[in-house]
Each structure stands twice: as structure tokens, then as C-alpha cells.
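Hey Z.,

So I finally got round to the guanosine-5'-monophosphate thing we talked about over coffee. Here's the setup:
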Amino acid sequence: MELLKQRILQDGRSLPGGILKVDSFLNHQLDPNLMFKVAEEFRRRFEGVNVNKIVTIEASGIAPAIILGYIMQLPVVFIKKKEPKTMDNMLVSEVRSFTKNRVYTVCISNSFLTANDHVLFIDDFLAYGNAAMGMIDLARQSGATIEGMGFIIEKGFQHGGDRLREMGYNVQSLAIIESLENCQIQFR
Ligand code: 5GP
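And the result:
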């Protein structure tokens, strides 16, 4: 998606350790116009895929997911990164965070992810695919089917996308970064 790539080049900063900082439009301040265009692009790419629910993971997936949910007129559920005391029918998994370098428990209520669901999973970044693997585990526990996975930015050099595509998932990434070496952003 050309507009997104331009924005990444303009405002993104490559940090040591293969991290891209896009705090000015995606991870801290949010650009609603860009989020709308991102959501439209996801809708276009998943046209014809039979989906009844969008699932994302807090926090940065929520903004694009809610706009996509509005456009597609579908409910949006976000996977929580902390176990709430009040949640019924909880399904739990573990995810390693690459940016924070720790393992955290993720959960979703079985009331909102069931065997009847055909899910589109949306997230801000795809790196090693750990968050996506958490989604896959929660879907397996609930019996839900994952019909597609959409990421705003995929870091191709960390190979989570290869892993998911090899597993047979329909993975759509709107910008794929080939390299962040020498603090230079290079797209695939
Ligand atoms: P994965 O689970 O695929 O290894 O990593 C994806 C998750 O880690 C995303 O939900 C995102 O929050 C975070 N993440 C991974 N790489 C980056 C990055 O380069 N920049 C930012 N801002 N977040 C990242």
C-alpha cells in the first residue's frame, strides 16, 4: 500500500534490534485518515472471504480493527494481555513479546470466540508471528476458524509471515519491510 509506505519512510524510525518506531501514526498518536485507508485496503484484500467477526490484540491492533469492523459491519473482539478477574469462560494462551522481551498471558472469553466464528485477525505488526500463534491457539481451543490474517506492517526479515503462510493461512500485509539494517528502511 503506497500511501502507507510513504508514511513509514516519512515518519518511521528504525531502532537498533530490528524495531521500527511508528509512534506518530500507529503506536501512540493515531492518524484516523490513514487508519481508515488501511481498513479499506484490508476490506478490499479480504473481499469474498466469509467472515463474521474481527479479532485483534490490545493495544495497537484495536484502532485499525474497529474501523474495519465499522466498514464491514462486523463485531470486533480484542484479545486481552492481562487476565481479568471478572471474565467468564476464559480461554488462555501465552505469547512472547519481542519488543518487551517477556512472555505474557493472553486471554479471550469463550463467549466471544466460539466454534461458530469465522475470524479475520488484524494486528499492527507481524514480526516473528508470536501474537498470531497465540491467536491460532485460542482459535483451536474455541473451535473457531481463522479465515484470514491482516497486518499493517510485516517485518519480512523476522519470518513470522513465512511461517504463517507455510501453515496455509491467508496472510495480507500492507507494507512488508525487507530490512532495517543500518537504520535504513527497505521494503520488499
Ligand atoms: P510478533 O508477535 O509477530 O513477534 O510481533 C508482533 C507484535 O509485537 C505486534 O503486536 C507489535 O505490537 C509488536 N512489534 C513487533 N515488532 C515491532 C516493531 O518493530 N515496532 C513496533 N512498534 N511493534 C512491534
